[in-house]
Amino acid sequence: MKQQTALVGAAIAAITASAYCILPAILGAASAGTLGFSATLAPYRPYFMGLTVMLLGAAFYFIYG
């Protein structure tokens, strides 16, 4: 159970960290504009990336440790 939780958490954190680049591109392709998402998420990007690394490390530990 811990393995799956860490893996899902890492995936969610990775998606959140990449939302700075992906979300505006998806909204732009949908002709909805960027709606200021990149400016809103920019200050939090380092925290999301750090969380991603920690959760991926935990998932690696639970699976192979």
Structural notes for this entry:
By secondary structure, the chain is an all-alpha fold. It has one domain. Helices cover 82% and strands 0% of the residues. The protein contains three helices and no strands. Helix 1 runs antiparallel to helix 3. The longest helix has 28 residues. It is elongated, with a radius of gyration of 14 Å. The model has no long low-confidence stretch (mean pLDDT 74).
List strands and helices in order, with pairings:
Elements: H1 2-29, H2 37-41, H3 45-64
Helix pairs in contact: 1-3
Terminal CA distance: 15 Å
Portion in beta strands? under 5%
Task: Round the Cα radius of gyration to an integer and report it.
Answer: 14 Å
Could you tell me the mean pLDDT?
74
Structural class: mainly alpha
Which residue ranges are poorly predicted, with pLDDT under 50 across at least 5 consecutive positions? none
Backbone shape: elongated
Along the chain, the helix and strand elements come as: HHH
How many distinct helices?
3
* Largest sheet composition: none
| Helix percentage | over 70%
Number of distinct beta strands:
0
> How many discrete structural domains?
1
